[in-house]
Description:
3 domains; five-stranded antiparallel beta sheet; BirA Bifunctional Protein, domain 2
Amino acid sequence: xxxxxxxxxxxxxxxSYNQLKVEEENGKVLFSQNIIESPDGNYRVHDILRxxxxxxxxxxxxxxxxxxxxxxxxxxxxxSDETFREMAQRYMNSLGYANQPYIVFKHTDIQRTHIHIVxxxxxxxxxxxxDTFEKRRSMEICRALERDFKLTPADKTGRQKILPxxxxxxxxxxxxRQVSNAVRELADTYRFQSxxxxxxxxxxxxxTVEEVKGERKGIPYNGLIYSVxxxxxxxxxxxxxxxxxxxxxxxxxxxKKMLTEKEKWKTDKLSKNRLRDDIQTAISTSKNRKDFEKQxxxxxxxxxxxxxxxxxxxxxxxxxxxNKIVLNGSRLGKxxxxxxxxxxxxxxxxxxxxxxxxxxxxxxxxxxKDKSMDNTTTAISEGLVDAxxxxxxxxxxxxxxxxxxxxxxxxxxxxxxKKRKL
Length: 422
């Protein structure tokens, strides 16, 4: 069984997300503790939120007081509702939430039946439940639950290496719900520093995102639109405004997240080194592009290449699903740039480097400009989004200094050819 823990600031978002599953008959409330229940036996968002109010009011200093947990048994395990209830109670008790209000939802909208638990980290006396070694403690609790309830051990199935979500399947229907589940999860749990990197991550799940600029009552605004991609990478069906998926997937929240991540990466050398080591090992032991991708996939790492019509690789992004990290190759260093892989895969010049040098500091890397927003935006007025979707410029993934260099180089060549013709 795998547990995912998320900390947040908005209780309404976590509760309404789960309650929506209930209303769509894709979930139900299995258990609650210290939560107001309606006379008819149902739970309403308003009453659930009221149940948490005294706790949140006791301490307003905690930055992320909301905790949202999902417990995910192996798809082969058949877990009854009663077992899920007992597992949830034991998990919360062991994690330190025995006296906290919390509510347990069962989700059945995907093949992997699982439960979500919403609670708060603030106690009634205003003290905060510590999250020290929280993930380690969570893993130990999960191993104990696996043994006691005879569940398939997660470490034996290698489920940590499997993508956390399924690719969007347009033919299955319920597209909006599929996109909502994927976008919320990816935007909230992965680390990325540009819209280009986020778009590369989304593309793995057959989704893309574009920025939309407009004006409402004389006030300029920025928004995002999400679309589904077919097997050829082309948009299919109607797009979705980010407002349909909550603040997590919205423009302002993602902008703040990306700025925060840029600051974090200035000091986080460990995460960068781990990814560099995995990539370098795959380079050293791979014979070709297919072998390289296969080896990294075995480690839970996807690669997104950007290529032009002539087959020139001008951009590369690595998505590490195990550590929830998305990085353009140029952020890892010149030896992981798109040009290096183009020389290897297209021209046959495999990199000879066998050791990974210390990562360059952000000051040593070229300044990065995320041109993906500029290239995919269209100025529009309120209410005209659908009318101008066909006018969007061709999508680019951007967010990579090397890509910008390549684009400028191609423009210079084009101008030179024009001058020669004249």
